[in-house]
Amino acid sequence: MPKLWNATVETHRQAVREAILDTAATLVAEHGLSSLNMSQVAQSAGIGRATLYKYFPDVDAILAAWHERQIHSHLEQLAEVRQHNDGPARQLEAVLETYALIAHSHHGGAEAAQLHRGRHVGHARQHLIDFLTELIQEGAKAAVFRSDVAPDELAAYCLHALEAAAGLSSRAAIARLVKVTLAGLQPPLPAGESVERTTAGSG
Amino acid sequence: MPKLWNATVETHRQAVREAILDTAATLVAEHGLSSLNMSQVAQSAGIGRATLYKYFPDVDAILAAWHERQIHSHLEQLAEVRQHNDGPARQLEAVLETYALIAHSHHGGAEAAQLHRGRHVGHARQHLIDFLTELIQEGAKAAVFRSDVAPDELAAYCLHALEAAAGLSSRAAIARLVKVTLAGLQPPLPAGESVERTTAGSG
DNA sequence: TCGGATAGGATACATACTGTCTTATAAAAT
DNA sequence: ATTTTATAAGACAGTATGTATCCTATCCGA
Question: In this complex, is the C-beta atom of B194 within 8 Å of any C-beta atom belonging to chain A?
Fold first, then answer.
């Protein structure tokens, strides 16, 4: 797939690299994660096996690079979504919903992402956590989120909870998941103001 | 490791099977998931490679069986914990805390569990979901949990959220995670009764 | 336009894991 | 005692790995 000699050497190498990642992702989506091998990637990418070894030392490295690229792309999406909303509450809601949709749509590719968390302890995933942590901290300062739990713990909670989106089928179900997850971030009632509402009984 | 001819053939085969699973789990914990292979398992278990193939067709099957055994064991723990508590609210809290502790302690072996979710779509995991679903449904009927979201969706949410426990370090952090997760299950305030409490500000 | 540097393809090689099969031995079941 | 069953050990072909060599094609600077 990568045209020979795109222009300069550098851009060419980059193009080949990208093509390799795309190919690997496709193969994983088609034949599963465990059956991915260097020979197959090389053949599908239309390059020699030896050449492939000049780009990546092994399958793990390919998957790691692919995962890194994915996370980076998602981070950009999330950052943009954040910009388009005002206030920590709305921002977080929009960001979480977007993340849930991503988790849902990539539930095929998530297979690899899962793996990665196990292998490399996701140094890439940390960026996501950091991004959410900062957002939640803002909200905690503004008292729209709870402050009795550290922001980074809440961020990890969100990320994990929203991965349940991979197993959901409808868009509405994802919205509900986001709502429930957000409920976990609400400041707790200050003990004494317990839940006793006879005004509107629900189901 | 499995003593030759424990007594009857059946018990012997069972003992060997268990030994294989134990060996595999140990190897995964030591050398990682991807490097696990039939030859290694056979050698470490002290049985012939051909013999191993008479118990399991491939590495995946071993991991699947191991995972199944794990889940089964966890379910027993959770069921027992539930019995020792009264009322949906306390029961769920105890169950979730136990699950979080399990997720935390098995965060090494979780590597394999993760994999499995990808491979077999965890038919074993469904048992866990079912168990939680039923418990949550009880609570929803009693109006201690929200009923605007289906119990099975809430169950999936809980399971995913609590897996964040694997990345936590302290027992206290796990308790906080459980608290936050449970907060997501609370019945929503019936719109209008929004959060405005000047009584006790939380710094 | 020529030549060094770099990218690539093809191939060979030793190693390792796979899945199946065969042979021979020892214990269990009847 | 005889048959069934479980096992170890080894052979086998097929395949993936990681490395190395050889040769060609393109780019870039002189």
Answer: no
